[in-house]
Amino acid sequence: MRIRLALGGNTHVIEASEDETLGSLKTRLAQQCGVEPQHQRWLLKGSKHLDTMTFKELALKDDAKVMVLRTNKDAATASATTATTASMTASSSVSSDQTTGSESKTDLAQRESNEPVQVGTGSMMLIIKHGKKTYHLHCEADATVLQLKHTLKPAVAGLADHQRLLVSGCELANTDTVRERGLLDGSRVMLLFKEGHHARVEGVHLLEQVATQIAGLQERLSKLEKRHSHRVNEAPLLLTALGALADEVEAAVHDVNNAQVPEGEHSQKRQDAQKELEQMRARIRQLRESISTGP
Fold first, then answer.
1. Same domain, 124 and 160
2. Are residues 14 and 123 in the same domain?
3. Count of domains in the chain?
4. Can you give the residue range of the structural domain that contains 26?
5. Which of 57, 186, 290, 291 has the fewest beta carbons closer than 10 A?
6. How far apart are alpha carbons 223 and 200 in whole angstroms?
7. CB 98: neighbour CB atoms within 10 A?
8. pLDDT in the model for residue 167
9. Could you tell me which CDD domains the record lists for this protein (predicted)?
10. pTM
């Protein structure tokens, strides 16, 4: 089987077997182009790709074309700083955007500590455990499990549909009431999340991160357009800078398209980001043609 790798304006062809790993492919590409495996970023479908995954597990087809970005220590450091800032901003917005109301600073401080988070109101209390986190859920005996989930939603930043409540290993049905399941004041309940919850939270973080990148990409593109409008005789330099910018835009497009986000506000934000990136693609194509054809 064959794979075509686009890196820095060049295309490298590698023959591979279905059992060959991504790490091995990176090493072979490094032998052709000189870019070390740890400095390669392959734009593949899906959210996570391990170097131990095989050609077949990556769902790559024969003669597939994959874009590869080159990273370096300086870029990685800057990216890590941006990502950390964006992640801190996004993590606070996730806890409020996915809920019906904003989480108070007191609630957030409690959730980040080992102190139990007080949730809801009622004459009895259930102890909800999720990993190291503890929630004291106050409710009434006739409350349904679905109502408990909605009460927990602001504190756990998880939609009711993504929550699973279990007692002694048995999952509680949404229609069950506290009384029907024999739960008493102080009963312990385990909280788990369905797989989609974590994917969506990661997707929201990724979307927020890309949103901060788009503004910088647009600013750089505007500067290149301005330089070209002055008709300075630097076409090779402009094309090189434009090529690097185009790679970053394609990486942002890849991240936005693969981000799993909940329906509603975040879904609209993804559509807005996709629209902005598509407009940048068009501007890049137009600028490249203008530079190549000359005055």
1. yes
2. no
3. 3
4. 2-71
5. 186
6. 35
7. 23
8. 87
9. Ubl_ubiquitin_like
10. 0.42
